[in-house]
Amino acid sequence: MFVYADNAATTAMSKAAAGTMLPAMQELYGNPSSLHQKGREANMALIGARETVARCLNASPKEIYFTGCGTEADNWAILEGARMGAEAGKKHIISDAIEHHAVLHTLAKLEKQGFDVTYLPVHENGLVRLEELAAAIRPDTCLVTVMFCNNEIGTLQPVREIGALCREKGILFHTDAVQAVGHVPVDVEADNIDMLSLSGHKFHAPKGVGALYCKKSIKLKNFIEGGAQERGRRGGTEAIPSILAMAAALEESCAHLQENMEKVTAMRDRLIAGLSQIPYSRCNGDPDRKAPGIVSFCFEGIEGESLLLRLDLAGICASSGSACTSGSLDPSHVLLALGMPHEVAHGSLRLSLCEYNTMEEVDYILEQVPEVVRTLRQMSPVWMHMLEHMDDPYQ
Ligand SMILES: *Cc1c(COP(=O)(O)O)cnc(C)c1O
Description:
Largest sheet: 7 strands, mixed
Oligomer: single chain
Strand order of the largest sheet: 2-8-7-6-5-3-4
Number of helices: 13
Radius of gyration: 22 Å
Bound molecules: pyridoxal-5'-phosphate
């Protein structure tokens, strides 16, 4: 059996996206800035795509800027939030310890430029606490950036409440919603969001296209100097096929949001219940506030990398944490921020599901993982050492 359970790393393109993209590549080759009919045709399609993306977020088309990826949208939002702050003499930013590297590395760059960044702790359940956010706010705080949904452990932050607090204090609020858009309801108005990043390939659109939502009242400056594209703020001829495919994928995801959430949540819960049976395992994140599709576990006494290799041999595509950290031997910064010891964080497994997965696949995962964990433990010196202090759960 083959099971793709790494949807938080990237998703397969949907039929709607691919079916939009191919003809767009073949027919809609005009440059949207050209005045002739091929240009007009492409421009009309671009306008339509912008309207679709805006509608799915409850935004206005003027508030949507297409970007090359989610990372770019994160960079743009944060650097702009910082620039606006600095112009007003405010150089303090609040974020948290479990953001994606697109956010953390941008903040690190700002710190080198003299900004002060407070990283809120997320506690054992992976959630930011509102009272701690409120306490961290200073007169010179210009920006709060807290992700909607964490890509490794799936926790859903209290975005609406964070946004409300920022509104009340007159502080700009950005959220990296790359794992949320297309998966859970996102409404920039109701959720009090000023700036939001999204990425197509996390909801069945192609890679290499994303968007930044920026509230009309915010005076966003240029990110890429060039032509008049994206209202002059991001030069570069628009990637029409990718943008149209992203709009098609998002429209489909939003149209089926409730049923997809129910389906994926049911699979997730069965997976969690099954994996929890494994001795010395723990499910990471918050039991209530979590994404429908992201399951994160730690198994004591084993290495996550060996687990992944064995699961791959069994046809299961999973991940140890974030795709961006695989290849490095450091345990995930997210799991460490939950207060987990290094050796436990090393034995992590992330399975991320989408509506294309099936219960049969979940059952197959539940057949394979406990056996692989058991086998690896029998070969693990760490586990042998643990057995000196506890009863062998496999006896
Ligand atoms: C994938 C991801 C990103 C980066 O998006 P790209 O389009 O791959 O650049 C940013 N933030 C989160 C939470 C992600 O999961």
